[in-house]
Amino acid sequence: MSATRILLLGAPGAGKGTQAAMLIERLGIPHISTGDMLRQAVADGTEVGKKAKAVMDSGQLVSDEIVIAIAEERLSQPDAEKGFLLDGFPRTLPQAEALSALLDKLGTPLEACVALTVDTEAVVQRLLKRAEIEGRADDNEETIRERMSVYEEQTAPLLPFYEKAGVLKYVDGMGEVDEIAKRVEDALA
Ligand code: AMP
Distance, CA 126 to ligand 1 centroid (Å)? Predict the structure, then answer.
């Protein structure tokens, strides 16, 4: 049986969103994206949205305190009992530790961390294309480079963290969407 408590990890533009959409459909689990939730908060003009907007536009990370609170709230909802796909959270070690503590408390530990590996320059090009299509304020070249270095410095250390936890699975994120989806499926089998 496939894992149902899954974290998708990868550099910005590694294709997490695309693979997430396919996985949640196949597994019937909720997609939990802190990026989507933060964008919604910005659009709604909430207190969190007001605090997060400038940080997001600059390519930096929103504070651990804010995102941990958002993620905990979401993971505690009843639909997450059947499993979940985390996308874009955790992004720092303190977030990963908070997530582990929460899931331990709920008795539902993470079963798999799928790390999509990609070629950085190819990713930058993919992000620039997405910026054109979606018009995201955080997708200009300077911000993209900033988000890449934030990923390297703050998020890449999660790889050894999940390796140690025995749930890390590397998946080659280069190639056709369907091919990558098949690799993800195999990694979760
Ligand atoms: P994403 O759509 O996941 O790339 O997220 C867009 C932006 O939201 C990021 O560049 C961050 O500014 C912010 N964000 C999303 N998730 C997190 C997180 N787990 N920790 C800190 N900031 C986050």
Answer: 18
